[in-house]
Write a structure and sequence with these properties.
The protein is an alpha/beta fold and about 575 residues long. It folds into four domains: about 150 residues, DNA polymerase beta, N-terminal domain-like (DNA polymerase, domain 1); about 90 residues, Beta Polymerase, domain 2; about 80 residues, DNA polymerase, thumb domain (Beta Polymerase, domain 3), CATH 3.30.210; about 240 residues, Metal-dependent hydrolases (TIM Barrel). It is about 45% helix and about 15% strand. It is built from 24 helices and 17 strands. The chain has a seven-stranded parallel beta sheet. Helix 13 crosses helix 15 and helix 22 packs across helix 23. The termini are far apart. The relative contact order is 0.07. It binds 2'-deoxyguanosine-5'-triphosphate (DGT), calcium ion (2 copies) and zinc ion (ZN). The site of 2'-deoxyguanosine-5'-triphosphate has 16 residues, from helix 1, helix 11, helix 13 and helix 14.
């Protein structure tokens, strides 16, 4: 259903017209038509086909023609014209919370403000307080809103979004009248970063729940509030949208707001091909106009003739085609993880003792854990000299004698030096059960150098896993300039695993590369890289990446039993 899209473009036009201080009636007409279309139960495409656009409240001849043009060509010439005539910076000001088109027009008209920087400067120089209906407080509010807007354009890590959602869900569960509540959007799809948080709920008293939501102690600003939805800001920059939906539409609404948009677009097309119009409200059979409602998303996918698609796969990257063929992967799950092969102890830069790590791993139900401390060239991270490693090996053997129900493995995270050589002699690596090799220095090498360097490490008979293979840190550091295809080819031919490092700002390999690695036949180790026993739990984020990368249990090295692991490792 294109209703939302059509409404959005009409809203856009209303705002752009207002920025130009166009005729009031024209502006009002666009806004009214947009609202009416947004609230329609019927598909605008169907209404248009029947030639009944003008029966929609607020839609006159001129707007009907534009809607028809949009549905036919995907564009509206008049909209494009408005965009051309409006300075880009001015249109951006519409994104600033609290600044409406009318005010922006005045700022432009009186002070010549054309963009964000000029607005900020005018507020700092106290030019704004001299305008009608403005004052010192308006200047402060504008500056605060700009500050927030600048931060808001950054996405937050999934690991930061999850606790917020948990807190809100817990809070709202205590409100009378709330029935079901569930996160949707990119968070439910397990994306590494989240733009805003979407929550859906059903409730017998939606007003009460909305009221409670905007009054939660963590709420810093209320962006909008209606009878069934509201948006707020928490933790300075994080937007949370809550929607209360009808119980009978829960399945279709959850499907819609889980996204991704690309997945939804394709699914709707498929529904149309099969004679249905899919909306967040229902699945409508076009032949007789009959609405089908779903309590569960599963039923919706099944009626369209396909397997249920788990949220992590919904990116339009082949999942719909696979679901039709019944060939979706059986995704790896957190409970399939039998151990962790990359954690740091107090022997290098970690904070836990070997015993503490072993106990925490046992608590998680693991069979084994490899303590993989750094090698000497990582001086700042307390890398172990050869003799220290030998002593650590003895300490691990001693603990294994005394501890029950978990096996400590001798690991190392050996540094791959700038020339591709490893930071320990082969005789030392030989004594380790699990060797993770990673790049930490000279990360800016040219593609040929760094690719060759990784391949040299992969070809070493002792190297079992390449740690954080791309080196990226979300929001901070780009990946190495590495030819990942070549690396994966070499890993496949030598039986070397690639890591999904689960540290929330690494998640490296990422979902896309993890999927490619699987296609190359490369095994993946999902590791925590914990530097503290409490961090072993971050593995859940790595598992999400693995699921988004279509990985199954059999693709994951540390889903093997200890026995299986030993027979897989290189020696
Ligand atoms: P985010 O917030 O940027 O991390 O990504 P999402 O996927 O959470 O996106 P968001 O919050 O804008 O919208 C939530 C879901 O609502 C999205 O995944 C799919 C659905 N949705 C939003 N806008 C549209 C749209 O224009 N068309 C369609 N088909 N679906 C949409
Ligand atoms: Ca979202
Ligand atoms: Ca949203
Ligand atoms: Zn490392």
């Amino acid at each position: 259903m294109k209703n939302r899209e059509v409404a959005k473009i009409l809203y856009d036009m209303a705002e752009l017209l207002e920025l130009k201080a166009e005729n009031r009636f024209k502006i009002i007409a666009y806004g009214r038509a947009a609202r009416a279309i947004e609230g329609l139960k019927e598909d605008i495409v169907v209404i248009c086909r029947k030639g009944q656009l003008e029966s929609v409240p607020g839609v006159g001849k001129a707007i009907a023609q534009k809607i028809e043009e949009y549905l036919r060509t995907g564009k509206i010439q008049a909209h494009q014209g408005l965009l051309r005539e409006t300075p880009a910076g001015l249109a951006e000001l519409l994104q600033i919370p609290g600044l409406g088109p009318k005010t922006i027009y005045m700022l432009h008209d009186r002070l010549g403000i054309k963009d964000l920087d000029e607005l900020e400067k005018a507020a700092l120089d106290h030019h704004i307080r001299r305008l009608p209906r403005m004052g010192a407080a308006s200047e402060r509010n504008i500056l605060r809103a700009i500050e927030r807007y600048k931060k808001r354009s950054t996405r937050i890590l999934l690991s930061n979004a999850e606790p917020i959602v948990e807190e809100i869900v817990e809070y709202l569960k205590g409100i009378e009248g709330l029935e079901h509540i569930t996160p949707a959007g990119s968070l439910r799809r397990g994306k590494e970063t989240v733009g805003d948080i979407d929550i859906l709920a059903t409730a017998s008293k939606s007003d009460e729940v909305i009221k409670a939501f905007i009054r939660m102690p963590i709420v810093e600003e209320v962006l909008s509030k209606g009878s069934t939805k509201a948006s707020v800001i928490v933790q300075e920059t994080v937007q949370v949208d809550l929607r209360i939906v009808e119980h009978k539409s829960y399945g279709t609404v959850l499907q819609y707001f889980t996204g991704s948009k690309e997945h939804n677009v394709k699914l709707r097309q498929i529904a149309l091909d099969r004679g249905y119009s899919l909306s967040e409200y229902s699945l409508k059979r076009l032949s007789d106009g009959q609405d089908h409602f779903f309590d569960w998303e599963e039923d919706l996918y099944h009626i369209l003739g396909m397997q249920y698609i788990p949220p992590e796969l919904r990116e339009d990257s082949g999942e719909i085609e696979a679901a039709f063929l019944g060939r979706l992967p059986e995704l790896v799950d957190l409970k399939d993880i039998r151990g962790d092969l990359h954690v740091h102890s107090e022997w290098s830069d970690g904070r836990g003792t070997l015993e503490a790590l072993a106990l925490e791993a046992k608590n998680l139900g693991y069979e084994y854990i490899a303590v993989s401390d750094h090698s000497p060239s990582i001086g700042i991270a307390g890398g172990l000299q050869g003799d220290q490693l030998e002593r650590k090996i003895e300490a691990i053997h001693a603990i294994n004698e005394t501890i029950e129900g978990i096996t400590l493995l001798v690991g190392t995270e050996v540094d791959i030096k700038a020339d591709g050589k490893l930071d320990y002699r082969d005789e030392l690596l030989e004594k380790c059960d699990v060797v993770v090799a990673s790049v930490h220095m000279a990360q800016r090498q040219k593609e040929r150098a760094i690719t060759g360097r990784l391949i040299t490490a992969i070809e070493n008979d002792h190297v079992d896993i390449i740690g954080h293979p791309s080196g990226r840190i979300i929001g901070k550091r780009d990946p190495y300039d590495v030819d990942m295809q070549a690396v994966l080819e070499s890993a496949a031919s030598t039986g070397t695993a690639m890591e999904i490092n689960s540290y929330p700002n690494r998640l490296d390999l990422n979902d896309v590369w993890a999927k490619t690695a699987k296609e190359f036949g490369v095994k993946i180790a999902i590791n925590s890289d914990a530097h503290d026993p409490s961090q072993l739990k971050v593995i859940r984020y790595g598992v999400k990446v693995a699921r988004r990368g279509w990985l199954e249990k059999k693709d994951v090295l540390n889903s093997l039993s200890l026995q299986g692991l030993f027979s897989y490792l290189k020696h």
